[in-house]
Amino acid sequence: MTQSDFDPQIMAEHAQALAQKGLTFMGVEIFDPTNFWMLLLRFAFNMLVCWVIIQFFYYRKSRRKDYYFTFMLFSVTIFLLLFLLQSIPMQIGFALGLFAIFGMIRYRTETVQIREMTYLFVIIGISVVNGLSMEVPHVSVIVANMLFVLITWLLESNKFLKHTSTKIVLYEKIALIKPDKYNELVADLTERTGLQITKVEVGHIDFLRDVAYLKVYYKAASDEINTIDTITRF
User: Fold this and answer.
1) pLDDT digit string (tens) for 18-36?
2) 90: exposed, middle or buried (Cβ count in 10 Å: 0-12, 13-18, 19+)
3) Which residues does 45 contact at the CB level (< 8 Å), separation at least 6?
């Protein structure tokens, strides 16, 4: 092979490509500035959106620090998993697999209320969108996240949906559960509970003990969610 066999242009292009690729260790690039700053920016944006939803919409009503902790860590875990593994060809299948695994587990050690399950699904969805949308225009990603925040705010707002609390009551004045005694039933419950009752439904009736289960709808004094409202003791 003579010196004339070397093409200076090809050698220059090869050297430029190696310079752009950067240092590698065992075939893996050690530091990629573009990917690094994208990770930080996407992570900060994802955490900001999830924090706004959890802090101002969920926690404002529920005051559950345990779920606050759970939602935030789910957000961090799902985002980092998908962002760092985005080069895997089956990235969509991997994301859906996470939902399937979560659906099978479902926190079997504790009964999770539907509101908490919904917020957890929303947090996972936001993290999946932010972690996998590397080739999606930034404006589209921002708009998608803002839609999450907007829809959650509308559904949690009392101006859009009127919040009505409920209680399960074991009632002993069984004579008042008759349809023609409905007004007297409401008046008696209002006087005894001090609640602003809007509706009463009659459930299970036990004639042996002369008691009945009632579901009482009332206007709560605040927007906070009372997690014990629908729990009954048998």
Assistant:
1) 455 556 666 666 767 777 8
2) exposed
3) 130, 142, 145
